[in-house]
Design the sequence.
């Protein structure tokens, strides 16, 4: 049984890792405005309807998936990180454009989804399990 000090150290390390991840996983308002400005400077908004943007998101997601094609056991594909960055940016750009075109607040819809997922996947049932919520027991 781990001692209290060991447990505290583990918790601190976990929290520090979360802080680092939070710092890396962010998007500023300026970034969103830059994406929209890029579109507007080219007068491309006229082409951006929800259907074509949804198609574009899927196509870019497929390009992201292509990075992992034939990678075998190498599920992280560290050496392909540049390509992952590029394709993930394409997906995110189209997501921003989709949200803007549909008049959706990205913070609001993501927070709403996290709340819904928290109900579907309560920590006490889902912790450490990968089953779909319909298959969770407990
Ligand atoms: Mg691409």
Sequence:
């Amino acid at each position: 049984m781990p001692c209290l000090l060991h447990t505290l150290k583990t918790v601190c390390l976990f929290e520090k890792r979360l802080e680092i991840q939070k710092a890396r996983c962010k998007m500023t308002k300026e970034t969103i405005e830059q994406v929209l400005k890029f579109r507007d400077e080219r007068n491309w908004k006229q082409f951006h309807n929800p259907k074509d943007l949804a198609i574009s998101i899927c196509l870019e997601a497929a390009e992201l998936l292509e990075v992992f094609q034939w990678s075998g056991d190498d599920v992280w594909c560290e050496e392909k990180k540049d390509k992952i960055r590029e394709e993930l940016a394409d997906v995110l750009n189209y997501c921003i454009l989709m949200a803007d075109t549909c008049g959706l607040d990205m913070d609001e819809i993501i927070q709403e989804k996290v709340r819904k997922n928290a109900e579907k996947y309560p920590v006490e049932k889902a912790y450490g399990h990968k089953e779909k919520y319909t298959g969770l027991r407990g």
